[in-house]
Design a protein that fits this description.
Its cofactor is Mg(2+). By secondary structure, the protein is of the alpha/beta class. The chain contains twelve helices and nine strands.
Length: 307
Amino acid sequence: MTETTKTHVILLACGSFNPITKGHIQMFERARDYLHKTGRFIVIGGIVSPVHDSYGKQGLVSSRHRLIMCQLAVQNSDWIRVDPWECYQDTWQTTCSVLEHHRDLMKRVTGCILSNVNTPSMTPVIGQPQNENPQPIYQNSNVPTKPTAAKILGKVGESLSRICCVRPPVERFTFVDENANLGTVMRYEEIELRILLLCGSDLLESFCIPGLWNEADMEVIVGDFGIVVVPRDAADTDRIMNHSSILRKYKNNIMVVKDDINHPMSVVSSTKSRLALQHGDGHVVDYLSQPVIDYILKSQLYINASG
């Protein structure tokens, strides 16, 4: 399978990140490694999207602080970025809305026409003579030539690093292959690019709680986008999925990370890191990176029991 036939993936993690822990970053790394090992995916970006202040969770510090801590946590990563869009909205946004925002944004920043892979489609071969000027598929006045796959992915990478956000689920980039030499026709290729929700098994389990999630949103999240799950504390993900009709229905869209790391991902816990900070526990270094610890101490966050 060549790189152009593999599914290109952007991992999106939504959450409080109160504060962001080493475990959150490890989730990205483990998910990327696992998807690469399947031979079917290429992960080209990761997005950390902190929740809006109005989410109302007890002890949630201002998004101003959480954004800075997230940026400090990923400052040495060449593929994970922090997206402030959720925090900058007037109110709390659903996970479904965040996914849809990034899909729409990806369409805009690439300038590509994207078609939903759920709609039956074939790689188009356009029967137009080479000496005619076809209607351009790649709508971007700043790009003087027809883009190859490398150019498309390069543009996506630039957008990730510049504005720290992007987006489409099971959707495809369609573009002219400038290297094709097909005589009287111009060959078009497709690169499938998906945004997958990255989460722990605790979020997956929350899908099974009646009334907690809007069922229409669940259909979109799991059915249109898909989920990559990193198990936490030896969770039985098969059992969890069997407890939800929607999870069972879209089981093929749920990828559970299976690797050689058997220890529980307790270092993901923001709650444990806050308790360690409040108690002056030196083990806080097991949970948080040093730049995040330094910022917390400087800003006097999480010092009292309420926050």
